[in-house]
């Protein structure tokens, strides 16, 4: 219901989880274009309520960081100021940020320096706004037609009178008090089925549904067309024939009075979708939200992520609480990777590895922590049957790969290795015993900053630790440094020296950050963008003349002194590289214990998430051609045009990032092996990623820039077909290896099979054939037959004609060797 007079709330509000603040009463004739409010303003706050006063709209300060605000809508008459909609999900608005109603952008949220933080997507110019008693904030054109409304800009909550259409979704918060997008979604599929599934952040890959309404078309029933939350409190899927399908069997018989209770349905941060009620008119808004029903019934069991960690993080155990919400706990002798994320992954607080076991052979260093009815059902690597309980324990104890053994059914022993996924307590296991292998002495994983090595055996432990903690490409540098230092130890039997004090400057144009600056910029290293063997990447915001979003890579260091010098050399070189198809390094941080790299932020994620997202349509053919050209130009620059030749060594979709305009940007090239200008090849151990590795890695052949050409050829076929290079689950075994299938399609004259149902690509058959031919040249077994990246760019641009490629031959060799 529209209203003509809006008044400001006049109260002191106890905000949970927000801090207390007060506002001054104001009255406005209506909301008009140009109205604005500044976060943290003590006078004339643009904080408006619905006519009934049930809902409020404005800025709420965050509890942990009072100078950070959330622009949101919340229930105003109850003590627990429950947020039902919020604007920006990426990061809060700092104090001094402003929200304004504009004709072109509708609601516009800007930072104190004027940078845009968020805006509503209006369909036409807005001329006014209304805030309804339903909690819906609506922007209207001159004819009072809606051009944007909060009810259609879905977050994690639905309110009575709100609907959801096909293709729309709710996305959970990352954590209880963290508004960033979480890993759970309520998605209304185009086939009419309403489902719950988890997402493997930071990608958009969706795991198997752990709840669904089943409202798809059948012989007797029509498909769902709309999710309805009606004014009387009913929540159901409305079918095409207008029949109602209750969202939850548990809620089908629930009768709720909307005159006596506030209602909401929220997808909680832990993946449980819950229908809540809160009494109206109670004294001072007291009372609490009471769950009436929730789905799924047991998320610990129902959510089985075959390609992810499950409800809780890796190595964690999920137990169902009394409110049907999951409780995540680390096993004994394990602790949280991130202490601020109780539902996150757990790490062992002790050393366990085959290399370590080899050194302690014959010593009784492990014991078992015994659990009951606890399982990680997808982490098995071997089943031993028939077996006794004692044989099961003995087998795990003697197996350096075994971290857990589960003995059940009286004769079956399932051995499991880290990381453990989908952990849960399951009473249906009927007394199964779980044996977790832990060290008796609880040896710490943390390597002290200075270690005295008394014998060769300890030296090798440090060598292994450094190698295992590093990225594949940096291992080249590590191996060289380790060989020198190991030789030094063997010859003179002196102690190794870990990284001591480091110089605070690097001779380059990069900015040198302090550790405290980056800790603050990332809110205590909060939001993880990605993880790898070499480190973790966090999202942050720094001030470099203006507020700038960045990606901060925190390296897993404790590097040797020789590697420290190489690290600085890399910074000198990479800091001088600048190309529109490379992710730019902005700065760095060095302390005695930490090394961090600061890169520009890429807003559209990885090429992998764009190509392999099964929920969305294929990206446009034109965009894919643009990306293919961009990657080629970036590699050409690394190989031939920058001051020091760089071989990337790990070209794959996960290492290609996309900026605001979907320009391809190669990342992690600074971690590759750097070659001097007078070098053309190097010999080293195998590295890279399965499916993208050139065959010379396996043949003790010199490694040149042609290894990147090979990887680019595989990547080019993935861009063309929008499928992964290896798919051993494919129904047709001939399609399992993309490079082999592509060559078969080319020789048989059926390259259209590579882009089935992609009309744009089929309409551009000439370009399609050219790209496949270029890719087949790139994946030749003989490096000498592969083109250079300069040749590749010339072929892509049509400067050079593409000749008929020979059979790549022995493509599948690497899949059995990697």
UniProtKB/TrEMBL annotation:
<dbReference type="GO" id="GO:0030246">
    <property type="term" value="F:carbohydrate binding"/>
</dbReference>
<feature type="signal peptide">
    <location>
        <begin position="1"/>
        <end position="29"/>
    </location>
</feature>
<dbReference type="GO" id="GO:0016020">
    <property type="term" value="C:membrane"/>
</dbReference>
<keyword id="KW-0472">Membrane</keyword>
<keyword id="KW-1133">Transmembrane helix</keyword>
<dbReference type="InterPro" id="IPR001480">
    <property type="entry name" value="Bulb-type_lectin_dom"/>
</dbReference>
<dbReference type="Pfam" id="PF07714">
    <property type="entry name" value="PK_Tyr_Ser-Thr"/>
</dbReference>
<keyword id="KW-0067">ATP-binding</keyword>
<dbReference type="InterPro" id="IPR001245">
    <property type="entry name" value="Ser-Thr/Tyr_kinase_cat_dom"/>
</dbReference>
<dbReference type="InterPro" id="IPR000719">
    <property type="entry name" value="Prot_kinase_dom"/>
</dbReference>
<dbReference type="GO" id="GO:0004674">
    <property type="term" value="F:protein serine/threonine kinase activity"/>
</dbReference>
<keyword id="KW-0808">Transferase</keyword>
<keyword id="KW-0732">Signal</keyword>
<keyword id="KW-1015">Disulfide bond</keyword>
<feature type="binding site">
    <location>
        <position position="554"/>
    </location>
    <ligand>
        <name>ATP</name>
    </ligand>
</feature>
<feature type="domain" description="Bulb-type lectin">
    <location>
        <begin position="38"/>
        <end position="152"/>
    </location>
</feature>
<dbReference type="InterPro" id="IPR017441">
    <property type="entry name" value="Protein_kinase_ATP_BS"/>
</dbReference>
<keyword id="KW-0430">Lectin</keyword>
<keyword id="KW-0418">Kinase</keyword>
<dbReference type="GO" id="GO:0005524">
    <property type="term" value="F:ATP binding"/>
</dbReference>
<dbReference type="InterPro" id="IPR024171">
    <property type="entry name" value="SRK-like_kinase"/>
</dbReference>
<keyword id="KW-0325">Glycoprotein</keyword>
<dbReference type="InterPro" id="IPR011009">
    <property type="entry name" value="Kinase-like_dom_sf"/>
</dbReference>
<dbReference type="Pfam" id="PF01453">
    <property type="entry name" value="B_lectin"/>
</dbReference>
<protein>
    <recommendedName>
        <fullName>Receptor-like serine/threonine-protein kinase</fullName>
        <ecNumber>2.7.11.1</ecNumber>
    </recommendedName>
</protein>
<keyword id="KW-0547">Nucleotide-binding</keyword>
<feature type="domain" description="Protein kinase">
    <location>
        <begin position="523"/>
        <end position="800"/>
    </location>
</feature>
<dbReference type="InterPro" id="IPR051343">
    <property type="entry name" value="G-type_lectin_kinases/EP1-like"/>
</dbReference>
<dbReference type="InterPro" id="IPR036426">
    <property type="entry name" value="Bulb-type_lectin_dom_sf"/>
</dbReference>
<keyword id="KW-0245">EGF-like domain</keyword>
<keyword id="KW-0812">Transmembrane</keyword>
<comment type="similarity">
    <text>Belongs to the protein kinase superfamily. Ser/Thr protein kinase family.</text>
</comment>
<dbReference type="InterPro" id="IPR008271">
    <property type="entry name" value="Ser/Thr_kinase_AS"/>
</dbReference>
<keyword id="KW-0723">Serine/threonine-protein kinase</keyword>
<keyword id="KW-0675">Receptor</keyword>
């Amino acid at each position: 219901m529209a209203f003509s007079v809006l008044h400001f709330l006049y109260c002191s509000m106890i905000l949970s989880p927000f801090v207390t603040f007060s506002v001054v009463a104001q009255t406005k004739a209506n909301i008009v274009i140009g109205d604005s409010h500044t976060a943290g303003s003590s006078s004339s706050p643009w904080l408006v309520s619905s006519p009934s006063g049930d809902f409020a709209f404005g800025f709420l300060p965050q509890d942990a960081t009072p100078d950070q605000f959330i622009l949101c809508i919340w229930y105003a008459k109850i003590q627990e100021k429950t947020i039902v909609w919020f604007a920006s999900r990426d990061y809060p608005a700092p104090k001094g940020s402003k929200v304004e109603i504009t004709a072109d952008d509708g609601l516009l949220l800007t930072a104190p320096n004027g940078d845009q933080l968020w805006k509503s997507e209006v369909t036409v110019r807005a001329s006014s706004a209304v805030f309804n008693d339903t909690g819906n904030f609506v922007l209207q054109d001159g004819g009072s037609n809606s051009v944007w409304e909060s009810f259609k800009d879905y977050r994690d909550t639905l309110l009575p009178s709100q609907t959801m259409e096909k293709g729309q979704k709710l996305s959970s918060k990352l954590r209880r008090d963290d508004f960033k997008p979480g890993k759970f979604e309520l998605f209304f599929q185009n086939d009419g089925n309403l489902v719950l599934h988890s997402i493997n952040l930071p990608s958009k890959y969706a795991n198997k549904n752990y709840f669904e309404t089943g409202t798809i078309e059948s012989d007797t029933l029509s498909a769902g067309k709309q999710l309805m939350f009606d004014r009387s409190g009913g929540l159901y899927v409305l079918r095409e024939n207008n029949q109602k399908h209750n969202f939850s069997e548990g809620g089908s018989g629930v009768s709720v009075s909307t005159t006596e209770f506030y209602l909401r349905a929220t997808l909680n941060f832990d993946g449980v979708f819950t229908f809540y009620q809160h009494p109206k008119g109670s004294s001072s808004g007291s009372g609490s939200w009471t769950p009436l029903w929730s789905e799924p019934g047991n998320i610990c069991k129902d959510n089985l992520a075959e390609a992810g960690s499950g409800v809780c993080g890796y190595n964690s155990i999920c137990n169902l609480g009394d409110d049907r919400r999951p409780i995540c706990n680390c096993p004994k002798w394990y602790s949280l990777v991130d202490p601020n994320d109780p539902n996150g992954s757990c790490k062992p607080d002790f050393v366990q590895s085959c290399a370590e076991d080899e050194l302690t052979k014959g010593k009784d260093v492990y014991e078992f922590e015994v659990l009951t009815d606890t399982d990680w059902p997808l982490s098995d690597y071997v089943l031993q049957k028939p077996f006794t309980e004692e044989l099961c324990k003995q087998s795990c104890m003697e197996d350096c790969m075994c971290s857990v053994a589960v003995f059940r059914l009286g004769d079956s022993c399932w051995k499991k290795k880290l990381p453990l996924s989908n952990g849960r307590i399951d009473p249906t296991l009927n007394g199964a015993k779980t044996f977790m292998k832990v060290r008796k002495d609880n040896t710490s994983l943390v390597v002290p900053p200075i270690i005295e090595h008394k014998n060769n055996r300890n030296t090798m432990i440090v060598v292994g630790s450094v190698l295992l903690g590093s990225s594949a490409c940096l291992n080249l540098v590590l191996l060289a440094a380790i060989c020198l230092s190991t030789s030094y130890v063997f010859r003179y039997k002196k102690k190794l020296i870990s990284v001591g004090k480091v110089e605070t400057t690097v001779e380059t144009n990069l900015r040198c950050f302090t550790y405290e600056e980056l800790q603050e910029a990332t809110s205590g290293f909060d939001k993880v963008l990605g993880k790898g063997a070499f480190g973790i990447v966090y999202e942050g915001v720094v001030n470099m003349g203006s507020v700038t979003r960045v990606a901060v890579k925190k390296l897993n260091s404790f590097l040797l002194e020789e590697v420290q010098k190489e690290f600085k050399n890399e910074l000198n070189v990479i800091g001088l590289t600048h190309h529109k198809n490379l992710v730019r390094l902005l700065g760095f941080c060095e302390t005695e214990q930490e090394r961090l790299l600061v890169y520009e932020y890429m807003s559209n994620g990885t090429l992998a998430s764009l190509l392999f997202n099964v929920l969305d349509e294929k990206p446009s053919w034109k965009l894919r051609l643009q990306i293919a050209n961009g990657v080629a130009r970036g590699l050409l620059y690394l190989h031939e045009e920058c001051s020091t030749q760089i071989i990337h060594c790990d070209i794959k979709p996960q290492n290609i990032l996309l900026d605001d305009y979907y320009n391809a940007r190669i990342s992690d090239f600074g971690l590759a092996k750097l070659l001097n200008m007078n070098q053309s090849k190097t010999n080293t151990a195998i590295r890279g990623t399965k499916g993208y590795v050139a065959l010379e890695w396996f043949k003790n052949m010199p490694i040149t820039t042609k290894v990147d050409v090979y990887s680019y050829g595989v990547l080019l076929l993935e861009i063309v077909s929008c499928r992964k290079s290896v798919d051993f689950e494919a129904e047709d075994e001939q399609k399992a290896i993309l490079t082999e299938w592509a060559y078969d399609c080319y020789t048989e004259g059926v390259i259209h099979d590579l882009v089935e149902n992609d009309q744009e690509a089929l309409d551009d058959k000439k370009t399609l054939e050219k790209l496949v031919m270029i890719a087949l040249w790139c994946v030749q077994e003989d490096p000498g037959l592969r083109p250079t990246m300069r040749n590749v760019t010339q072929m892509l641009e049509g400067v050079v004609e593409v000749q008929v490629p020979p059979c790549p031959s022995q493509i599948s060799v690497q899949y059995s060797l990697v």
